[in-house]
Amino acid sequence: MESLQQSTPSIPIQDSLPQARLTFIERYGVSPVLFGFFVLIAVFLLYQIVGGGITILFFGIKPTAENVDGFRVATGLGQLLLLLVPTILLVRLASFQPDQFMRVRLPSVEMLLPTIVGIFSLQQVLQIYLVIQEKIPLPESLRTSLERIKELIEEVYKVLVASYSIPELLFVILVVALIPAVAEELLFRGLVQRSFEQGLSPVKGLLLTSVIFGAYHLNPISFIPLAALGLYLGYLTLRSQSVWVSVFAHFCNNAFACVAIYLNMNDDYVVTGNPEEMSVGLLLGTFAVFGFIFFLSTYYFNYVTKLHHQASDNLVKAPS
Questions:
Q1: How far apart are CA 202 and CA 192, in angstroms?
Q2: Angstrom distance (rounded) from CA 183 to CA 282
Q3: How far is CA 63 from the centre of its chain?
């Protein structure tokens, strides 16, 4: 009689076990960095080309007093449908747990408070930097071209952001501050930076995302301030492990500008006045003071997040 072992066909171990689920980028061996760039290109084409083309088709190239509400609605819908929705869909190609991947976890209030001071003081520092940047000698042809670009961007921006009543101000804050904060942060800090971190390192992913964030806005005049803002927002996410911290800071950054224009202040003003009319000494003094305030707020943010992480680690290690 044949033994049971001889009569029973052998089954390879790997065939008898369920196959591990693989994400799209794992199944096809796509580099996380390459995936991050694919996301950026896809969203750029959707939002800037398709969305921008539709807006121009319906409302023209520049917003005016007559069509500004249409421009605002188109901007908000474009951010939601062509920035936020693709981000939510594309993240599923990289992870079966999109919430964890994009660090969509609620932060503590203690984490949010220092970012208000941090983003406001950073605004002051960057506005003074822009004045200093304008004093850098450039070829006349290049300077003329940059001035024209600056005037065009400022003209469009101020028409979109200007408001003349509380209801209109709230609508502008919704379209210019809240929706972009959520959509852009989930895209850049949630999906793209996280992908770059996995393919490179946390620091390199942060730096690369910041540079791309500065370039993505298609504003050569403000490239360095935008990259610096992106660096701060990315650091907030990385340090807190919550993308909502950078969403909150991004919202505050944009909302401050909306309120300033509503109060008939230029959004490039600093606390001590118009930086273009300030003396060199006052400029440097203001730069130093708000730079120090920014340092203190960031130091306190680091302290709060350290306590939070320690508390989380102790909770995990505690016996059940």
A1: 12
A2: 37
A3: 25
Angle at the Cα of 145 from the Cα atoms of 139 and 150, rounded to 5 degrees: 120
pLDDT in tens, 75-133: 999 999 999 999 999 999 999 999 999 999 999 999 999 999 999 999 999 999 998 88
Question: Which candidate, 150, 135, 137, places its Cα nearest to that of 284?
Answer: 135
| Mean pLDDT of all residues belonging to the chain | 89
User: Furthest-apart CA pair in the chain: how many Å?
Assistant: 104
- Give Cα separations from 7 to 4, 17, 134 (angstroms): 5, 22, 86
CA atoms of 191 and 91, how far apart (whole Å): 6
3-state secondary structure of 75: helix
Q: How many degrees, rounded to 5, is the angle at CA 137 between CA 134 and CA 142?
A: 85
**Three-class secondary structure assignment of 182-212:** HHHHHHHHHHHHHHHHHHCCHHHHHHHHHHH
The pair of structure tokens assigned to 12 is: 């390879």
Using one digit for the tens of pLDDT, what is the confidence trace for 166-211? 999 999 999 999 999 999 999 999 999 999 999 999 999 999 999 9
Q: How would you classify residue 269: left for phi > 0, otherwise alpha for psi between -120 and 50, otherwise beta?
A: beta
CA distance 25 to 31: 7
Of 28 and 277, more confident: 28
